[in-house]
Design a protein that fits this description.
By secondary structure, the chain is an alpha/beta fold. The protein has 15 helices and 13 strands. The strands form 2 sheets. Strands 3-2-1-4-5-6-7 form a 7-stranded parallel β-sheet, sandwiched between helices. It has a 6-stranded parallel β-sheet with strand order 10-9-8-11-12-13, sandwiched between helices.
Length: 376
């Protein structure tokens, strides 16, 4: 329990995708804050899963229609919730426009906007962060802060606070045996894993890299996790003669076990990322990682120390890095151990919760000073 006084906080996420990294980060932050004695409200789209998650975590759930960015019924519902719960801090993980509009209807001491992606932003979107109605912006890495500043958002209102990993759930003693059995892997088979499927994730590049890897490491298998529709990736794999070496899975809850069952976790993203969450999670279970040297990944992956970095869209370089880890398992294990130490010291959920809580109190006390996590 913190020595500081308890706060009344609302976390805004007007979406239904409870399974994404952003949603999980919000839930873990809200849970951590509630565990430290704060009154925490979740405002999301209606959904039984959101309601159940809130109930199980000791949170209040406020469903919003969220039909559009400027959805007036959601604005009114949000303002009503802020008033009824005497909210002091609204933390908009998504939907900052709704929060800005709600603040026109009800007094709101502090409004924080999150920025977790590095896609270019236009003038109107930049204004949404720069406006005086937004008290502060939390950027999940230094790279994203630089992008916001370049777009015209004052550096003085942006604080870098890294996303966190639950190091009690993601730890080296997790057992991946059941996952390997499910996938039909023998003791000599090598599992390469990518978590997440979208156009900028580099899934196609990784499939193409497997076409280079397979002849040199016929015992290697790639599993891609999180596909809503696996057909496109499977068709690409079959076209390259890799149908036997690639599995595509949907949403899974056993991510720690999947990562622990793996030789390495790969993020081949080529746009939009901050720091890929699966990389933190893989290192937390001491599984080696290969990632593109893009945006904030280099703030977590120290090339040759906590993982291997490759250029975006470099299929040959990606394949070479993965083959290096397959060939030298002791080196891969050393990278994983060093990565675990870094995650524990700088990227844990506990550290994130403490830094966010301190930010809330500072802003409510009228201190706008920001402190970059990368400088601490």
């Amino acid at each position: 329990m913190p020595a500081t006084s308890p706060l009344r906080i609302l976390h805004l996420y007007p979406k239904s995708d409870y399974f994404t990294g952003a949603a999980i980060q919000m839930l873990e932050l809200a849970t951590g804050l509630a565990g430290r004695g704060h009154h925490v409200v979740l405002a999301t789209r209606p959904g039984d899963i959101w309601t159940r998650e809130a109930l199980e975590r000791g949170l209040v759930h406020c469903p919003l229609p969220s039909a559009s960015t400027f959805d007036l019924p959601s604005v009114r519902a949000l303002a009503r919730t802020i008033r009824e719960h005497r909210i002091q801090v609204v933390h908009a993980h998504k939907g900052k426009t709704l929060a800005i509009l709600a603040a026109l209807l009800v007094p709101l001491p502090v409004l924080i906007a999150n920025r977790g992606v590095s896609f270019a932003i236009g003038r109107l979107q930049a204004f949404g962060y720069a406006t005086g109605r937004v008290t502060a912006v939390v950027a999940v890495c230094k790279s994203i802060k630089r992008g916001l500043v370049a777009a015209g958002v004052p550096a003085t209102k942006i604080e870098v606070i890294y996303s966190g990993t639950d190091i009690d759930r993601f730890h080296p003693d997790v057992d991946g045996t059941a996952v390997r059995k499910e996938l039909g892997l023998g003791p000599d088979d090598v599992l390469i894993t990518q978590i997440g499927v979208r156009s900028t994730k580099g899934n196609d590049d990784l499939v193409d890299a497997m076409a280079v890897i397979a002849p040199r490491a016929p015992h290697a298998c790639l599993v891609v996790v999180g596909a809503r529709d696996p057909r496109a990736l499977l068709e690409r794999a079959r076209a390259r003669g890799l149908g036997h070496a690639i599995r595509v899975l949907g949403y899974r809850k056993d991510i720690p076990e999947i990562l622990r069952a793996s030789c390495c976790c790969v993020d081949a993203s080529h746009a939009g990322l901050g720091i890929t969450g699966a990389l933190r999670e893989a290192l937390a279970v001491e599984t080696a990682v290969v990632a593109t040297d893009l945006e904030g990944n280099g703030e977590l992956i120290r090339d040759g120390v906590t993982g291997l970095l490759v250029a975006p869209r470099d299929v040959a370089g990606l394949a070479a890095a993965i083959l290096r880890l397959i060939a030298d398992r002791e080196y891969a294990a050393a990278l994983g151990r060093a990565g675990r130490q870094l995650v524990v010291s700088r990227f844990s959920t506990r550290i994130k919760v403490e830094r966010i809580e301190a930010l809330y109190h500072r802003l409510l006390d009228g201190d706008p000073t920001v402190r970059s996590s990368g400088d601490s």
